[in-house]
Amino acid sequence: MSALPYTVISLNGNIDVNSSDALRRQVMDAVTPDQPRIILLDCSEVTFLDSSGLSAMVMALKLARESQNQLAVAAVPTQMMMLFRLTGMDKVFKVYEDRTAFETAMTVPS
């Protein structure tokens, strides 16, 4: 078995107006137009997400897609998932229960 190429960005603390630019930069650094991959946002350490943070995540998704990359999220805390459901983002983002579930899904038979 082999794994599809992916990059993990571990988010922590508040994802808000103060951290949204850093999130965008991290995704821009991970995007590889010449070698498409999946970018996973590991949200296990996120304590708060506001509309600015959600906007940054949507922009990150757009940036990834424009470069033929994919973006997924894992280990989404309850408050964050409530915001995802309220805004319909749970249908926009590929959401995994945790990083292990993501890594299992990325393993393909050789």
List the helices and strands and how they pair.
Layout: E1 2-3, E2 6-15, H1 20-30, E3 38-49, H2 51-66, E4 70-74, H3 78-87, E5 94-96, H4 99-106, E6 107-108
Helix pairs in contact: 1-2
Descriptive notes:
With 110 residues, the chain is of the alpha/beta class. It has helices spanning 20-30, 51-66, 78-87, 99-106; strands at residues 2-3, 6-15, 38-49, 70-74, 94-96, 107-108. It has one domain: Transcription Regulator spoIIAA, CATH 3.30.750.24. It has 4 helices and 6 strands, in the order E-E-H-E-H-E-H-E-H-E. Strands 2-3-4-5 form a 4-stranded parallel sheet. Strands 1-6 form a two-stranded antiparallel sheet. The protein starts with a strand and ends with a strand. The model has no long low-confidence stretch (mean pLDDT 92).
